[in-house]
Write a structure and sequence with these properties.
By secondary structure, the chain is of the alpha+beta class. Helices cover 62% and strands 13% of the residues. The chain is built from 13 helices and 12 strands. A hairpin with a 5-residue loop joins β3 and β4. α2 runs parallel beside α4 and α2 packs antiparallel against α6.
Amino acid sequence: MSATQRHPVAAWQAGALALVVGLTVIVPALVLRGAGEAAKHSSDLVRHTLEVDAQAQSLALHVRDTEAAALSLAAGVDTPRLRQRLAASRRQIGSAMTALQRLTEDNPEQQRRLGELQNQVSLRLGNMDALTRAGAASTRAEVDAAVRQFPVGDLIAQVIAEERGLLARRQQQYRQRASLTELTRWLAVAAQVLLLGAAAVYAVRQLRRRVGAERDAAQASAYAGLVLDTVREPIAVIDADFRLVLFNPAFAELYGLPPDAHGRRLAELEGDAWTDEETVRRLGDVLSRGREMWDYECGQTTADGVRRTMLINARRMPLGEQQGRAAMIAATDISTRRASENRIHELNRQLEGKIEQVSEVNRELEAFSYSVSHDLRAPLRHTAGFADKLQRHLGDAADEKSRHYLGVISTSAKRMSHLIDDLLVYSRLGRSALRLQSVDMQSLIQETRAMLDANLKLDQPERIVEWHIGRMPVVVGDENMLRQVWLNLLGNAVKYSAQRQPATIEASHAYDAEGNHLFTVRDNGAGFDMAYAGKLFGVFQRLHSATEFPGTGIGLATVRRVASRHGGRVWAEGRPGEGATFFLLLPASDQPHNGRLPS
């Protein structure tokens, strides 16, 4: 990984600094250089125009000097000095004409005028030469013709006027460029000041951020050190030579290290904790190859001489290239957990044995149930059948005592048969698997009530039972088992309120504080003494005699078994002669009730 990849923010800052330097120094310098070159070019053009103007003025001057010398000779004034002046003027005219042609090479219009001017000057100089040769013999007419025939003043004036027009435009351009240069200079200065100010603000901000970052880093380091010292898990950092770089008090306590043990090799610690070849090899892979060591279990003898089962985790730390390689080690003492697991395994083994014993008991119960349902029923049927036949055989010949004895035999056989049926139901409820489904308790209670009302019309048509059934929810449970619960609870309410006219039976539902279903069945029957409430739900436990209220004593035990299998419970409250109230608590189903009963 490159430095740019490691520090993207630093690379961005370096690029921004280079851009600021460019905008602050290089760009203004280039702009000023361009403006200076433009101003220099304008100045050169102005100088060039002035030079053309000077040469044109010089040409006009020398032409006039030549004319003056020639006219003086024509007037009879002939001196060597005058002759020298004439010759010098003729030479200066040629030099000036050559200079003008050179200076106006970039101006075709001026070149055209200079060509015409050169022609006129040549012809005029020819006339002046003729006057010079004639001397004093020249007539006034010849002199006048020589002066007027080939005029050059207008052409020279046109050349000068053109150049002065160029001069005015070029001076204006020069002033504009000079102003632009000055404006550019001030703008560059202002831009430099702004950029330098922005750079200064950014530098101050970065300095504040760096100071804040260093402060936060120091605070985070202090917090990390505090957390490391607080953690009870032994933690250490080692370098590539397996030397301790950092460790917390838990590590020092476990392996007997003094506070100044930094730089000590792991192999130098007390005991054989870090001399195991496999452990050393795995740590070497972590340091050299970047592999991670997760939940490596090994045995170590620590500073207190105790042999412990340790769980080692190690991972290489992402340090910089200049800091070398390092790895963080976390050691967890799982000796207690291993002992607990071994104990759990032993208990599981014992539990499996108990389960096998229970399974054997269940198999014996299955055999007993089969025997009860088949082998015991046959003698009962025989007893009841032959008692009935004997009664019909004796007919009217049987006395009162014989009929009583035969009635007791028949009634006992029927009671024994009912007892066997209830035992089988109770046994099946304890062994059969729950078939969980949504059960509408409203429908279940109405079905049970209808069945009880039908039985009353057949057996006790004179009885009046007033039912008060509240709104019931839909619960999750075994429908057949819950039907058995309502058959027993409502059947008991009908049975034990037989001496009340009318009998009043209430069934209601509510939610407790945890959202569980709480069903209540209340009657105005015989009631019971709360001192014997614990016997209500036991098998064959009865608080009233069979002659007073018939029954087998298994119904409420069946209710308790069903409630227990559904994760609930059942209990009762009552007073003798004031009726009883039975409570059935079932866990909340997955269907939300929102504190309201379903309609």
